[in-house]
Amino acid sequence: MSLLSNNTLCKKFECGTCGKIYKRHSGLENHILKVKEANIMRPTVYDLPEKAIEETRQALVYHIKEKLKKNSRHVGGVRIMVSCTESQFFGVFKGYIHDYYPKTGNYKCIFKGVSSYHTLSNVLGDDNWGIKYFSQQQQTFVLSYQQSPNPNDPDPLQEPDPLQEPDPLQEPDPLQEPDPLQEHDPLQEHDPLQESLQDQNKTSMHTAKKRRIYKPKPIQIVIC
């Protein structure tokens, strides 16, 4: 899938993979450059042998098929989380990484459109990665693309990205702020014991933060 999509009528430049729109061609070029940089292995990532990469692919296919249930009540969106090393992740998805978030260490791959299932078949090395067969010729499968009746409607399979970092320019929701017109209940008495317990909880939480040792977490592959 090409990253470059030029809309000459509106004079906008769109990324064919993630759908981001830029007013200038230079903005799209910078976006494509970031995508290429996200696929460059950093010094902490090791080039694994093909056998280890193939075992990671098989593990991913196994966890995907584990979520394919026979009962119709399991129909719908499913999220799969698989822990692996960063080297294993790069061994499988290198070349298909679309974004990298340095603050959280998260990678993002996007597979959508008519050819998304075929693309993942190449990535995972298994044409039946999204199909599970049962007795009596029954099967459950992954629906990676669904044509919308109205082209202007959003993709019904698209869900909020759990790896997306918050937008610092986004304003807070005023509906979630405390109401300044809300009156204080005169019947509600001040509880000195509750205040004492709150102070103790703050002290214990502060001590726990000092003693907490942060260890690097393994990479988690989230498939939605």
TrEMBL record:
<feature type="domain" description="C2H2-type">
    <location>
        <begin position="13"/>
        <end position="31"/>
    </location>
</feature>
<protein>
    <recommendedName>
        <fullName>C2H2-type domain-containing protein</fullName>
    </recommendedName>
</protein>
<keyword id="KW-0862">Zinc</keyword>
<dbReference type="GO" id="GO:0008270">
    <property type="term" value="F:zinc ion binding"/>
</dbReference>
<feature type="region of interest" description="Disordered">
    <location>
        <begin position="145"/>
        <end position="217"/>
    </location>
</feature>
<keyword id="KW-0863">Zinc-finger</keyword>
<keyword id="KW-0479">Metal-binding</keyword>
<feature type="compositionally biased region" description="Polar residues">
    <location>
        <begin position="195"/>
        <end position="206"/>
    </location>
</feature>
<dbReference type="InterPro" id="IPR013087">
    <property type="entry name" value="Znf_C2H2_type"/>
</dbReference>
<feature type="compositionally biased region" description="Basic and acidic residues">
    <location>
        <begin position="181"/>
        <end position="193"/>
    </location>
</feature>
<feature type="compositionally biased region" description="Acidic residues">
    <location>
        <begin position="156"/>
        <end position="176"/>
    </location>
</feature>
